[in-house]
Specification:
Layout: E1 2-6, H1 31-45, E2 49-52, E3 61-63, E4 75-78, E5 83-89, E6 93-98, E7 103-108, H2 110-115, H3 117-129, E8 135-138, H4 151-156, E9 162-163, E10 166-167, H5 169-179, E11 183-186, H6 200-203, E12 209-215
The structure holds zinc ion.
Residues 143, 145-146, 190, 192-193 line the site of zinc ion.
Length: 217
């Protein structure tokens, strides 16, 4: 049975500006708070092992089965049970993929989405694990309503995704899913509009929420 969870910012022990349920070590929060929050996350989902990535806005996807490692990448994929895969974000989208044998968690912000990380993960699931039916979950992330970008960035983007001076990252993700016929559930929440989620655009220094997927034995 495959399960998933997207956390929000409430219920943890971190202090402002990371309050409350920050699960990321790289943002300047007290490491003891982050560890406590990660323990709370494990309790919440009922899984002892969670693999996080050292995220770098790439399209690198790594097969993982060793919870003692933190690979440098933006996509985690496994066919193991009782190991959860977690993506941290605060405006970027977490895209979770599930299929018969494999599960994946992707960090899809502007850079990752433009590089096609979602397409790449679907192809890996098909080629490496023989998956046919794949389903996706799109976490909250910054909506086109709030994602205004500069001319330099706009000029690099496919005009299909440009709305005036705003960029539609979710449309990039959805197009990649649709291209492969992958059905998806979209939380439909803009992190910059909704204070229940961390938003880098709204807050600057802040925490990260988690998009987590796991297969229970
Ligand atoms: Zn918004």
């Amino acid at each position: 049975m495959i399960e998933h969870l997207v956390t929000d910012r409430w219920g943890g022990v971190s202090q402002a500006p990371y309050h409350e349920f920050n699960i990321a070590h790289h943002v300047g929060d007290d490491p003891r708070c982050v560890e406590r929050n990660r323990e709370l996350l494990k309790k919440t989902i009922g899984v002892e092992k969670i693999i996080f990535a050292n995220q770098i806005h790439s399209d690198t996807i790594v097969y993982v089965d060793d919870p003692s490692l933190t690979p440098t990448c933006d996509g985690l994929i496994t066919d193991k049970t009782d190991i959860a895969l977690a993506i941290m974000s605060a405006d970027c989208y977490g895209v979770l993929l599930k299929a018969e044998h494999a599960i994946a968690a992707l960090h899809a912000g502007r850079a990752g989405a433009m590089k096609g990380i979602v397409s790449k993960a679907i192809e890996m699931m098909r080629e490496d694990f023989g998956e046919e039916k794949i389903e996706a979950i799109i976490s909250p992330g910054i909506g086109v309503c709030c994602y205004e970008v500069g001319e330099e960035i706009l000029s690099q983007c496919d005009p299909v995704y440009v709305r005036g001076t705003h960029l539609d990252i979710k449309a990039m993700i959805v197009d990649q899913l649709k291209r492969y016929g992958v059905e998806y559930h979209d939380y439909g929440i803009c992190t910059c509009c909704n204070p229940d989620y961390y938003s880098y655009r709204r807050e600057g220094v802040t925490g990260r929420f988690a998009s987590v997927i796991w297969r229970r034995a």
